[in-house]
Amino acid sequence: MDVVPDADVEAVEAVDGVFLTQGAVGEEMSIQRFEIDPGEAVPEHDHPHEQIGTITAGSITFVVDGGERVVEAGDTYVIPGGEPHAAANRGDEPVVGYDIFSPPRANPDWGE
User: Fold this and answer.
1) What is the pLDDT of residues 11-70, one digit of tens each?
2) φ and ψ of 7, to 5 deg
3) 103 preceded by cis ω (within 30°)?
4) At residue 87, what are phi and psi to the nearest 5 degrees?
5) How far apart are CA 111 and CA 45, in angstroms?
6) CB of 88 within 8 A of CB of 41?
7) What is the arithmetic mean of pLDDT over 86-112?
8) Whole-angstrom distance, CA of residue 102 vs CA of residue 63
9) What's the pTM value of the predicted model, to 2 decimals?
10) Backbone φ, ψ for residue 8 (5° rounding)
């Protein structure tokens, strides 16, 4: 069993105001913590990984296939691999959540 203490991992600022922390990486999936400051956004992108996540604080607006979906603390979501998506924090507090990727998305190039 591998354990990745949160205190041992530094967050990477992927884009302005969007902080990603790589958690545990297994053979078939990985987990990542994210925090998005108020007013900041993740631009549209896609990746081959299926992405399942949960919001633990705040709310986030996802833009997928031309439509918007608001996901609030306690909600879970899934984004199929290869589906273009974007996300924005339109609230007054940071959004915090966790994404699980399959296959693993360990230390991707955040500039891609």
Assistant:
1) 999 999 999 999 999 999 999 999 999 999 999 999 999 999 999 999 999 999 889 999
2) -65, -20
3) yes
4) -150, 145
5) 10
6) yes
7) 88
8) 21
9) 0.91
10) -90, -5
